[in-house]
Design the sequence.
């Protein structure tokens, strides 16, 4: 009997999950099933602060770009983003973004090295890591911040819980410590669980959760994360023997 196909469990907000899935399918990867069950919601809250005098925007998530657009934020002369996905969203909004291609630390280093005339404005969500505005101010780059969207936690769907309690191996990409911690609260299932964690911090947020296999990309960015997940999907048929035991 052939082993069951792996299930790709996507827990990012719906737009990000569908974009990630489309990017994987565009690489010609087949032979897997997909369940989308966001663990984090996105709700635009606003308001925007007084924008007079602000010379540039800093975005650490495409969600921030979308919230900024929804609130009617103007296109500014300068724009900095943490990674390529956020840069694409900013470009679609009319900005000419410069991407750090990494994490918040890379973003701060890039902006500090350029030393632009401020003030800059970091548009972020309620839950944010990296202290971007504070660290930039410490380097001499005047930076403010505005919380313009919320990220409420959500429970796994019934479909996701059924997948986790089934026979097929479940491949779970986790992009943030908060989504990892939220997932770790769910009751454990019996399906083999293969995790791709964006970073060591993300994997640590899983705490004592048992996983069959854990992969961390060489760099904490979308391209490397996608490559890791594609590799796991292509290995999916070999992850579980026909009788359901996990290969060590």
Sequence:
């Amino acid at each position: 009997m052939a082993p069951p196909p792996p299930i790709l469990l996507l827990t990012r907000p719906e737009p990000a999950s569908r974009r990630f899935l489309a990017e994987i399918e565009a690489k010609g990867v087949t032979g897997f099933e997909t369940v989308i069950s966001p663990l984090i919601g996105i709700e635009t809250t606003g308001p925007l602060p007084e924008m007079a005098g602000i010379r540039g925007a800093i975005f650490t998530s495409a969600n921030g770009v979308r919230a900024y657009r929804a609130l009617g934020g103007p296109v500014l002369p300068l724009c900095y983003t943490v990674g390529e996905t956020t840069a694409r969203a900013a470009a679609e909004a009319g900005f000419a973004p410069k991407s750090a291609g990494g994490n918040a630390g890379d973003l701060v280093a890039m902006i500090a090295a350029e030393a632009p005339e401020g003030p800059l404005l970091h548009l972020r969500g309620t839950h944010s890591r990296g202290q971007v505005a504070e660290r930039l101010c410490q380097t001499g780059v005047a930076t403010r911040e505005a919380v313009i969207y919320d990220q409420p936690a959500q429970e796994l769907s019934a479909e996701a819980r059924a997948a986790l309690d089934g026979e097929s191996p479940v491949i779970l990409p986790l992009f943030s410590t908060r989504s990892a911690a939220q997932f770790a609260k769910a009751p454990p299932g019996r399906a083999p669980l293969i995790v791709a964690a964006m970073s060591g911090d993300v994997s640590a947020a899983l705490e004592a959760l048992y996983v069959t296999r854990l992969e961390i990309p060489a760099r904490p960015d979308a391209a490397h994360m996608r490559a890791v997940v594609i590799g796991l999907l292509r290995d999916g048929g070999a992850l579980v023997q026909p009788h359901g035991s996990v290969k060590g």
In short: The CA atoms of residues 164 and 191 lie 5 Å apart.
